[in-house]
Amino acid sequence: MTRIAFLHTGAVVIPPVMALAGELLPDVATVNYLDDKIVADLRDPRLSGSIEGRLESLARAAKDGGADAVMFTCSSISQLAAPIAERVGIPVLRIDEAMADVAVATGPRIAVIATLPTTCEPTTSLIRERAELAGRDPQIVSEVVEGAFEAVAGGDRETHDRLVVAAIERLAPDADVIVLAQASMASAADAATVDVPVLTSLRPGIERLAASL
């Protein structure tokens, strides 16, 4: 049986990923690996240099445990997928790549919303990477929603969603598509009332994974 390892930087993402895996990957064995200090350590100059090595160690553990591929579920670390895959010797996939492709195909005005600066820049870079491959040159604007991450980290999902929805509704009139940079923001997508698509990463990412198997 094919085995896929999901590598997370926040425990909050594991339940929705497992729900989608159960729906979309019914004949695949899954395993989760978690380092819940990575997002914080990316902002710490003393520890940020350790991130790639820690992720590589987890990917090697996944391979040793029989994984045929690893999927990163955090946009903050997407840029490390390719070099780690090359060294470890199994595919390391990015859950947000499919979302970026949909955004590029939807229209030239893309608004990226994040709740952490460490996620905003990698997501914007990923969209530019995928746009270049598609021969497109979108206009990308981005915003980090202050206070939203702190709210959800403290268990206040309602405040998180209210802040993110406000940002979605503020940016939507001048965008063809909204991209939510973090999987943990998905609940806000359902709450926003706008006339443009609001994209999240989990479902399109796991659908692409399923199609590749």
TrEMBL record:
InterPro entries: Asp/Glu/hydantoin_racemase, Iso_Racemase_Enz_sf. It comes from the Bacteria. One of its GO terms (molecular function) is amino-acid racemase activity. Belongs to the HyuE racemase family. This is Asp/Glu/hydantoin racemase. It comes from Microbacterium sorbitolivorans.
